[in-house]
Design a protein that fits this description.
- Helices cover 37% and strands 14% of the residues.
- It is of the alpha/beta class and 539 residues long.
- The strands form 2 sheets. It has a 9-stranded mixed sheet, sandwiched between helices. A 7-stranded parallel sheet has the order 6-7-5-8-9-4-10, with helices on both faces.
- A hairpin with a 6-residue loop joins strand 1 and strand 2.
- Helix 5 crosses helix 8 and helix 10 packs across helix 12 (293-305).
- The radius of gyration is 29 Å and the shape is elongated.
Length: 539
């Protein structure tokens, strides 16, 4: 139905109110009223352009190496330029919430080629200078001959651990934290007698990890060292019932170092299949994950069963063992103050933080692509087919594709099957029997593509990974740090690249924070600890 036309008086009133004031002053009585054809704000901008009074647009594109390379060259930023804290930053992702920004992209380029953990440790000395015994040094040389000098994190972690301090170590991914706590652990156990007063397994060292894959990896690193030193390293696998856990512990009654997940250890403690009375060393690896709500109740129970030393003096009695506490993670763990107040004195804690903590990795190229949800599959298939050609011709590195849910991993796997792209899948809803060994097969090179959830982003060593694709953009900046940390690790054989698909408005919010931090060369915001009181020491 056609709308009624407004009366003539109303139309004249609208025209009169819309007309510029300068026209009313010179208009004659019989002259018709002007018709407004464009908005007044747009008209003013056009007049400014014609008069040449418009402010010049900020252009950062200069010759030379780039820090930020964008599809629009005027938004590039050279490597030699660093924006100040209050300086205006021309973000390439500024308008990405608009649908017209589809197919836009920008990259954070590599600022250096060497891993920061090695680059900063050139003057850190050798492992022998850190206080390690010759037996431990010989075991390290036999188990890992490629490790010839300590990383910065290892140089700063090992000495206070040997002095008996509780340690909170927060450092970037791939910086060598595992060896940093394993070597002091094994050396401490060498000087401790084994007390055979219990008929059930009583480990003297415990490494608690959030996933079965990480437990398998830590055991694989620790076991060769333990064999050389005459120490028994065992793994307690999760995802099984009490009968399977009882069978595992019955096969390995003599345990010096136990690597376990919280769920499996909790079941063993509840069933009185294991005791922590002889514990001398307790490590929470990936502590930020273990202190999350999903694990916190289990970890609290395990800490209650452990006898944590109040200070280093409590560690000197070999016949009344107390546990030294070590917390490590790539993001600063929250809740540390509340946790330590229950088990030990906060004054006994030494905090070690890396200078690159929570920063964009300077040796990894990171590309962000603004796509519609329907375009992601096509883009991923094209990337994987290009990689497959390079992998077959030059044996380049492998690929990790991250999704935010198990259902997406399964659905995307069916699509890759249709495109004849061979791959492996790893997600948390798989039965334990299916998950066992999948990541190890990927590391050994049986397949060069792994579809996974964030279960593969925490702590797993991935020195053969060349490309990380965030099919779903991570939900937090912490998750982005962990995913990107799968490439560019200490010992990596290939340079690393991260490609992220950006789809939703909340994805854009995180991308803008990442880009702004990169342009200003600052750490990512909002990943600080929630410790209320200051920690006593920083190295």
């Amino acid at each position: 139905m056609a709308l009624a036309r407004p009366p003539r008086v109303l139309r004249l009133t609208v025209r009169l109110l819309s007309a510029p004031r300068r026209d009313l002053a010179v208009r004659g009585p019989d002259e018709p009223l002007p018709v407004v054809r464009i908005p007044r704000a747009l008209q003013l901008r056009q007049e400014q352009r014609q008069s040449g009074r418009s402010s010049p647009r900020l252009v950062l594109a200069r010759p030379g190496r780039l820090l930020i390379s964008a599809r629009r060259p005027e938004l590039n930023q050279p490597a030699r330029l660093t924006l100040g804290r209050w300086e205006r930053a021309p973000l390439a992702s500024r308008g990405w919430k608009n649908r017209r920004s589809r197919r836009d992209y920008f990259s954070i380029e590599r600022a250096q080629h060497e891993v920061p953990a090695l680059r900063d440790s050139a003057s850190e000395g050798s492992f022998a200078a850190l206080g390690l015994e010759p037996r431990v040094l010989h075991a390290l040389q036999e188990a890992a001959p490629e490790v010839v000098r300590p990383t910065t994190v290892q140089s700063r972690t090992i000495p206070p651990l040997l002095r008996g301090r509780h340690i909170l170590c927060a450092a970037e991914t791939g910086s060598g934290k595992t060896l940093g706590y394993l070597l002091p652990l094994l050396q401490r156990l060498l000087g401790r007698p084994t007390l055979d007063s219990h008929r059930i397994p009583a480990p003297r060292g415990l490494v608690l990890v959030p996933s079965r894959e990480l437990a398998e990896q830590v055991r694989a690193v620790a076991q060769p060292l333990g064999v050389s030193l005459g120490l028994h390293v065992r793994e307690l696998e999760g995802g099984h019932g009490m009968s399977r856990i009882r069978l595992q512990l019955s096969k390995q009654p003599s345990v010096d170092v136990l690597v376990a997940t919280p769920g499996a250890l909790w079941k063993a403690l509840k069933g009185q299949l294991i005791t922590l009375r002889q514990l001398s060393y307790l490590v929470l690896d990936e502590a930020d994950t273990l202190l999350d709500e999903s694990f916190l109740e289990l970890v609290d129970y395990i800490l209650e069963k452990s006898h944590i030393a109040e200070d280093s003096a409590d560690l000197k009695d070999p016949f009344n063992p107390k546990a030294q506490l070590v917390l490590v993670g790539a993001t600063f763990p929250e809740g540390v103050g509340q946790l330590l107040s229950k088990v030990a004195s906060p004054d006994s804690l030494t905090t070690i933080t890396s200078s690159k903590l929570h920063c964009i990795m300077p040796h990894v190229r990171q590309t962000f692509m603004r796509l519609k949800g329907a375009e992601k599959v096509t883009e991923l298939v094209q990337i994987l087919k290009q990689h497959d050609k390079a992998y077959r011709s030059s044996r380049s590195g492998t690929v990790l594709v991250f999704c935010n849910s198990s259902s997406t991993v399964n659905w995307l796997g069916y699509i890759l099957d249709d495109h004849k792209i061979q791959h492996l899948r790893l997600q948390g809803q798989m039965p334990a029997s299916m998950r066992a060994g999948i990541f190890q097969c990927f590391q050994e090179g049986s397949q060069d593509i792994l579809l996974c959830t964030d279960i593969a982003s925490r702590g797993l060593d991935s020195t053969h990974v060349e490309l990380v694709v965030n099919y779903d953009f991570p939900l937090t900046l912490q998750d982005y740090i962990h995913r990107a940390g799968r490439v560019g690790r200490v010992g990596s054989e290939v340079p690393g690249t991260v490609i992220s698909f950006v789809t939703h408005p909340w994805d854009v919010n995180l991308v803008q924070k990442i880009e702004l931090a990169a342009r200003r060369r600052r750490s990512l915001p909002g990943i600080g600890s929630s410790v209320s009181e200051p920690l006593p020491q920083q190295i």
